[in-house]
Design brief:
The protein is mainly β and 88 residues long. Helix content is 0%, strand content 60%. The chain has one domain (3-74). It has strands at 3-7, 13-24, 33-39, 42-48, 51-63, 66-74. β5 and β6 form a beta hairpin.
Length: 88
């Protein structure tokens, strides 16, 4: 596996990019599996219980037929918890 991790001025990850992933091409009839560039840009970070975590980001493919974003996420403030026992 080969990947590139870009860091912001604080040293926090701001993007992860690789070309060794495969996707069922959404732009081609039959959706063949192809290798494409994939990345996960991070837009924002926060600190909860003294721990840094991503609060906004994406996951996207860069394909010959166009950009394909399949995840756009944000953490809802107050919903993240660490060290939660099983069943809770």
């Amino acid at each position: 596996m080969t990947a590139r991790v870009s860091l912001d001025p604080r040293g926090a990850p701001k993007d992860f990019s690789t070309i060794d992933r495969f996707v069922a091409d959404p732009y081609t009839k039959g959706h063949p599996m192809i290798r494409g560039r994939w990345n996960t840009p991070v837009e924002d970070w926060s600190i909860t219980d003294g721990r840094p975590h991503v609060t906004r980001g994406h996951a996207q493919w860069h394909l010959a037929g166009g950009e394909f974003e399949y995840a756009d996420f944000s953490v809802i403030p107050g919903t993240l918890a660490y060290d939660v026992p099983p069943g809770q």
